[in-house]
């Protein structure tokens, strides 16, 4: 499962991750726009006090494990590979961002197809909309945060505008959906 967001998304993630049910085994990959200077581990350190799930920043060639929440490292694009590992890339920024939600979502869509769930949260640009299209094209499930509940509606609205978002949900509805998986 992939969750992407930008401005305002940390607050939403701090609601979603702690609310995941005991025994949640699906790996979760968070792609959050943050400055290259972001302190390594800050988000995972704070979140880990609020959930029994294991949280960490993804590392090069790391095997993706069930029940783990991975955060894309600041200033790297995060790719999911065929052998179920991560790959980090420092290529050009996409939508002024590295990590780019589109880059991660598109790479994962090719590898995971119909088993993938992609969620776009609040944010101030259209990063993630191409990734949502890729997930839909490969048969995965697509969700956008309800723009009316987003701190900045641009990102979820851009995803919805693709016509490929299957569900538009509030934060509470996203939590219910994820816990039903």
Automatic annotation (TrEMBL):
What GO molecular functions are on record for this protein? phosphorelay response regulator activity; protein-glutamate methylesterase activity
GO CC, alphabetical: cytoplasm
Could you tell me which InterPro entries the record lists for this protein? CheB_C, Sig_transdc_resp-reg_Me-estase
Gene3D superfamilies assigned to the protein according to its UniProt record, in alphabetical order: Methylesterase CheB, C-terminal domain
EC number assigned by the record? 3.1.1.61
> Residue limits of the CheB-type methylesterase domain?
1-181
Q: Name the residues annotated as catalytic in the UniProt entry.
A: 6, 33, 127
Q: Name one GO biological process term.
A: chemotaxis
Under catalytic activity, the entry for this protein gives:
[protein]-L-glutamate 5-O-methyl ester + H2O = L-glutamyl-[protein] + methanol + H(+)
Q: Which domain of life is it from?
A: Bacteria
Key words of the record: Chemotaxis, Hydrolase
What is the name of the protein in this document?
protein-glutamate methylesterase
